[in-house]
């Protein structure tokens, strides 16, 4: 059993225990890293961090022998820094990202996952320029050490970041290069057209185009759709088009040893699958009937 590899999942942040409750849930699944939203991902309504039991949660996580660096925050989906078609929305997205960096720091997290956004039919070059301008402005005025981890996307609609080249372009243009890295989502890169049946080749390509030194987080998800579908629909481990064996390779490739791997797989019959999926990954076996046993 491999207890050292960093494996975790997305955990909800709900009352009454909020962050402390999220930590306890992650520990109950056998996790040594986890990711959470500071509020609902579909909106920007946020409670004051002080009401969310950050100190109690941090203490419980550290007392379990874990590091605060294995706690990850995900910014809400509705932040779109790739388009200026609605200037007020662009300005609000910058403001909210700045606040999210401060919130992440208050929880002890040092990584914030961010979707790069949609160019709204203005083209990826315009979208990338808008995103870079926003990142530079926000980071110019941020005093935290939280790194922004731009997520690789599936190429749905007009979203940018659908290729390693587009992500590399973002990283090459930002001013604060030490504050911006990458989240690789296995479902997204599969749906974008990268052949995940050969994980080593995908990792090689990432390293060639972007550089593994820029990889901060891995989202470990199977895909409901075939290669290159540009759909972005997550599936449970071993139940999709990528498969358990290939996903295990992303977990155990020695080049990725120190990267936290986060499951965002769907609930099954309203039950979280994470404890069982993490157990299978750590033990190195696949039970085809595991979902029915939840």
Question: Quick recap of the structure?
Answer:
With 294 residues, the chain is an alpha/beta fold.
Find the structural class using helix and strand composition: alpha/beta
The portion of residues assigned to helices is: 25-40%
- Strand % is 5-15%
| Radius of gyration, CA atoms, in whole angstroms | 18 Å
Main pleated-sheet profile: 8 strands, parallel
For the terminal residues, how far apart are their CA atoms? Answer: 21 Å
Low-confidence stretches: none
Largest sheet: spatial strand order: 1-10-7-6-5-4-3-2
| Counted beta strands | 10
- Mean pLDDT, to the nearest integer, reads 96
The rough form would be described as globular
Order of helices and strands: EHEHEHEHEHEHHEEEHEH
Total of helices: 9
Detailed description of the structure:
The protein is an alpha/beta fold. The chain is 36% helix and 13% strand. The protein has 9 helices and 10 strands. The strands form 2 sheets. Strands 1-10-7-6-5-4-3-2 form an 8-stranded parallel β-sheet. It has a two-stranded antiparallel ribbon with strand order 8-9. Helix 2 (54-63) links the parallel strand 2 (34-36) and strand 3 (71-74). Helix 1 packs parallel to helix 2. The longest helix is centred in the first third of the chain and has 20 residues, at 87-106. It is globular. The model has no long low-confidence stretch (mean pLDDT 96).
């Amino acid at each position: 059993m491999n207890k050292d590899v960093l494996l975790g999942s997305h955990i909800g942040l709900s009352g009454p225990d909020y962050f402390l409750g999220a930590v306890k849930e992650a520990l109950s699944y056998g996790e040594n890293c986890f990711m959470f939203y500071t509020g609902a991902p579909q909106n920007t309504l946020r409670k004051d961090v002080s009401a969310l039991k950050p100190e109690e949660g941090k203490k419980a996580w550290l007392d379990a022998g874990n590091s605060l660096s294995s706690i990850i925050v995900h910014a809400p989906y509705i932040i779109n820094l790739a388009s200026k078609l609605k200037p007020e929305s662009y300005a609000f997205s910058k403001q909210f990202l700045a606040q999210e960096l401060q919130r992440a720091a208050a929880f002890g997290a040092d990584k914030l996952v961010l979707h790069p956004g949609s160019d709204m039919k203005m083209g990826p070059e315009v979208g990338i320029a808008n995103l870079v301008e926003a990142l530079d402005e926000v980071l110019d005025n941020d005093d935290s050490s939280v790194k922004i981890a731009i997520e690789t996307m599936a190429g749905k609609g007009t979203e940018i970041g659908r290729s390693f080249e587009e992500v590399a372009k973002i990283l090459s243009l930002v001013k604060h290069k030490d504050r911006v890295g990458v989240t690789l989502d296995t479902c997204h890169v599969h749906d974008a057209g990268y052949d995940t049946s050969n994980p080593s080749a995908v990792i090689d390509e990432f390293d060639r185009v972007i550089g593994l030194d820029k990889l901060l987080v891995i989202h470990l998800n199977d895909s409901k759709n075939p290669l290159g579908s540009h759909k972005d629909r997550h599936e449970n481990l071993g139940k999709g088009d990528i498969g358990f064996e290939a996903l295990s390779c992303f977990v155990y490739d020695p080049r990725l040893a120190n990267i936290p791997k986060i499951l965002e797989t769907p609930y099954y019959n309203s039950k979280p699958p994470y404890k069982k999926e993490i157990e299978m990954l750590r033990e190195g076996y696949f039970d085809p009937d595991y979902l029915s046993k939840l």
